[in-house]
Specification:
Length: 387
C-alpha cells in the first residue's frame, strides 16, 4: 500500500514538473569502461518510472509463486493429519468390537502421533488383552509421560500389577501420585486392592474407617468386609482368640455396630473354636431383630446347650411363623447340640416353606442316625440334585 501511494505521488509530481522540463538541455551521462550512455533528464525519469512498475510486477509474481508452494505444503500437512485421524478412529472402533488384530495394526501406525496419550492407552489395552505384558507396560509408561493420560496410565499399570499378585509394585505406583489424585474414588479403589494384595488388612481397615467410606460408596461394604475378615484372621492366627477378643473390645462403638465388622469378628471366633463367645456376640448384636448376614452364623455354632440362641430364634419364629430361614437355622443349631427331635421338627417346618439343599441333607443325616437308611438315601439323592 505504501509503495502504491509513493507511485501516485511520483505521477502527480511528473504531471506538474514534466511540462516545465520540456526543451531543457540537461542530460545524464553514464560511462562504463568502453560503453557510454547519454540521455536527457526526461528520458531518465521515464526509465525510472517503468523500472519501478516492473519491480512491483515481478514482486507480485514472486509472492504468488511462493504462496502456491507453501499452500501445497499446508495441504499435504492437512492430508497427513486426516490420515492419522482415520487410523485412530478405525483402531478405536476395532478395539471396541474386539478385533484386536485390526486395532493393533491401525493404532500401531500412529504410536508416535499426538493424541494426548489416548492412542498409547488403547495400544496398551490391546497388548494386555493379547497377553503381551512387556509391550503393554511399555505403552503405559509412554502414556504416563503425557500429562493428559498420566493418571489413567498409572492406574492401569497398578491394576495390572495387582492382577499379577505384585501388590508392592502397585502401591509404589499409587504412592507416586499427587495427593489430589490419591483422593479420587477410582484411585482409592485401586489403592484398596493393592493393600489387599499385600495382606495389609489392618492398614486397609484403618483407611476405610478414616475417610474412604464416602468416596467408595457402594463398594465400601465389600472392602470393609474383606478388611475386617483379613485383619481379624491375622490377629487370631498369630496371637490367638483371646487377643482377638481384646482387639474387638478396643474398637470404637461405631465400628462395633458395623455389620461387616460384626460378621468378620464372629466368624473368626467360630473358626477359633470360641463358640460360646460367638453365641454371646450373635445374641447381643441382634436384639432388635435378625440380620441375614449374621443369621446364618448360628448354623455353625456347636454348643451342647445353646439356650440363649434357641430362645432368641423361637422368639423370632413366633413373630414370623412363615419364615423358612428361621426354622432352618433353628434346625441346624439344634442338630449340632444333639437335640435331634427339635432339629427334625424344625427342618420339616423349613422344608414346608421352601426347599433348600442344606435342609434336605440335614434331614437325610437325621434319618440316617434314626436307622432309616431308605428314607435317608432318598433324601440324599434329592439333596444332591437340589440347588
Amino acid at each position: 500500500m505504501i509503495r502504491i501511494i509513493l507511485l501516485l505521488v511520483f505521477l502527480v509530481i511528473g504531471l506538474f514538473a514534466g511540462p516545465s522540463l520540456v526543451g531543457e538541455k540537461g542530460y545524464v551521462l553514464i560511462a562504463l569502461k568502453h560503453t557510454t550512455i547519454e540521455m536527457s533528464v526526461v528520458s531518465l525519469g521515464v526509465m525510472v518510472f517503468f523500472a519501478v512498475i516492473g519491480f512491483l510486477i515481478i514482486e507480485w509474481i514472486i509472492k504468488r509463486v511462493v504462496g502456491a508452494i507453501t499452500g501445497s505444503r499446508h495441504w499435504l500437512g492437512g492430508w497427513g493429519e486426516r490420515r492419522r485421524q482415520r487410523f485412530f478412529t478405525s483402531g478405536m472402533q476395532a478395539l471396541a468390537e474386539g478385533d484386536l488384530g485390526a486395532a493393533r495394526k491401525s493404532l500401531g501406525k500412529i504410536a508416535n502421533a499426538n493424541f494426548d496419550g489416548l492412542n498409547l492407552l488403547a495400544l496398551a489395552d490391546v497388548e494386555a488383552k493379547q497377553g503381551n505384558t512387556e509391550q503393554a507396560l511399555g505403552y503405559w509408561q509412554q502414556a504416563a509421560a503425557v500429562p493428559g493420560s498420566e493418571l489413567a496410565a498409572k492406574l492401569n499399570m497398578a491394576r495390572f500389577e495387582i492382577g499379577q499378585q505384585h501388590g508392592a509394585e502397585a502401591l509404589t505406583i499409587i504412592e507416586s501420585l499427587t495427593h489430589a489424585q490419591q483422593q479420587k474414588p477410582n484411585v482409592i479403589e485401586v489403592w484398596a486392592g493393592a493393600l489387599a494384595a499385600t495382606d495389609q488388612w489392618h492398614t486397609l481397615r484403618e483407611k476405610l474407617d478414616s475417610g474412604w467410606k464416602k468416596p467408595l460408596g457402594d463398594r465400601y461394604a465389600h472392602w470393609s468386609g474383606m478388611a475386617s475378615q483379613g485383619d481379624f484372621a491375622e490377629i487370631a492366627n498369630k496371637e490367638g482368640a483371646n487377643e482377638l477378643i481384646q482387639e474387638w473390645q478396643k474398637l470404637p462403638r461405631g465400628q462395633k455396630k458395623d455389620l461387616t465388622h460384626q460378621q468378620a469378628y464372629i466368624a473368626q471366633l467360630i473358626a477359633q473354636g470360641m463358640h460360646q463367645e460367638a453365641e454371646k456376640a450373635l445374641v447381643s448384636t441382634q436384639k432388635s431383630g435378625p440380620q441375614p448376614a449374621l443369621l446364618t452364623l448360628f448354623k455353625s455354632l456347636q454348643l451342647p446347650q445353646p439356650t440363649a440362641s434357641i430362645k432368641l430364634l423361637e422368639k423370632w419364629i413366633k413373630k414370623d411363623s412363615e419364615n423358612g430361614e428361621l426354622y432352618s437355622v433353628l434346625a441346624h443349631l439344634a442338630f449340632h447340640s444333639g437335640d435331634h427331635i427339635l432339629a427334625e421338627k424344625a427342618v420339616n417346618q423349613a422344608l414346608e416353606h421352601r426347599q433348600q439343599q442344606d435342609d434336605i441333607l440335614l434331614l437325610a443325616e437325621i434319618k440316617a442316625q434314626q436307622q432309616q437308611p431308605d428314607e435317608a438315601l432318598a433324601l440324599y439323592k434329592q439333596g444332591v440334585s437340589a440347588k
